[in-house]
Design brief:
Elements lengths: L1 H11 L10 H9 L7 E5 L2 E8 L1 H6 L6 E5 L7 E6 L4 H19 L4 H16 L4
Parallel strand pairs: 2-4
Antiparallel strand pairs: 1-2, 3-4
Helix pairs in contact: 2-4, 4-5
Length: 131
């Protein structure tokens, strides 16, 4: 009798997803990046294309974000990341860390909002609070 109740109650419990971000591996990936327009790299089994925006291209961007990502337009199941080319090396690393982590969390089936919040927390743990 207890066994039957226990198995029923366990199936009704909501599964909690645990995010997986391999921080050391991600930082190593970022440190190997060539800061070139169209640079292709991979992290945790996903392909990425890096696009560097000039200040003029950035001005045309409606969101005016220094970094953004979109589903890949290159025919792969990956992500395109757009980054303002005039950012300092440290800001590039920080922004790219956030974008790659967020994309990876999306691949782990987290919603946009969840992925952003988790990536932001990891970014701030590593680089400090945003200004």
């Amino acid at each position: 009798r207890f066994k039957k109740y226990f198995s029923i109650s366990m199936t009704n419990q909501k599964q909690t997803k645990i995010p997986e971000i391999k921080v050391d591996e991600l930082l190593l990936t970022i440190d190997k990046i060539k800061w070139e327009n169209g640079y292709e790299f991979s992290y945790n089994g996903t392909s990425y294309l890096l696009f560097l925006l000039t200040p003029a291209e950035h001005e045309q961007n409606e969101s005016h974000e220094e970094a953004e990502y979109f589903a890949s337009t290159g025919g792969t199941n990956g992500w395109d990341i757009y980054l303002l080319e005039t950012l300092s090396t440290e800001k590039r690393r920080k922004k790219l860390f956030h974008e790659i982590a967020e994309c990876n969390l999306r691949d782990q089936k987290f919603s946009n909002a969840e992925a952003h919040e988790i990536a932001l927390q990891e970014e701030q743990n590593l680089f400090g609070k945003r200004n």
